[in-house]
Amino acid sequence: MHVLTRALLVASAFAAASPAAAQDIAAGERSWNKCRACHQVGETAKNGVGPHLNGLFGRHTGEVEGYSYSAANKSANLTWDEAVFADYIKDPRAKIPGTKMVFAGIKNEKEIADLTAFLKQFGKDGKKL
To answer: Among 51, 44, 104, 90, which Cα is nearest to 74's?
Structure first.
């Protein structure tokens, strides 16, 4: 029985480390509170201090219509995916020197994964996927 218990504990540890278990949309929504002073998501989202973030993943930097991007952001030539976003959100000014985004960054990997999961819910039209 001791061997079975140990095997279950090891299996549980691997499951907890899997990407699906690593992302918590509710926690990501709480983290989103750090972003919402400048950004919006959802069906009624508009550009504000920052561009709306609907359909962020798969989009190129500087692409949201009607938003006045910095030259640095327009010329960054990045496509937002999970890795690029994670690197950017840790220190936006290091990833895109000259960006207008004034944000200290999020350093915690789990929080970044949760925020990513929250943002990935929103399609280009702002509807949840």
So the answer is: 51
Q: Indicate the Cα dihedral angle 66, 84, 114, 108, nearest 10°.
A: -120
Nearest CA to 79 out of 99, 100, 55, 102 is that of 55
Report long-range pairs for 99-106 (Cβ below 8 Å, ≥24 apart). 99/70, 99/72, 99/73, 100/69, 100/70, 100/73, 101/38, 101/50, 103/34, 103/38, 106/31, 106/34
pLDDT tens-place string over residues 92-129: 999 999 999 999 999 999 999 999 999 999 999 999 99
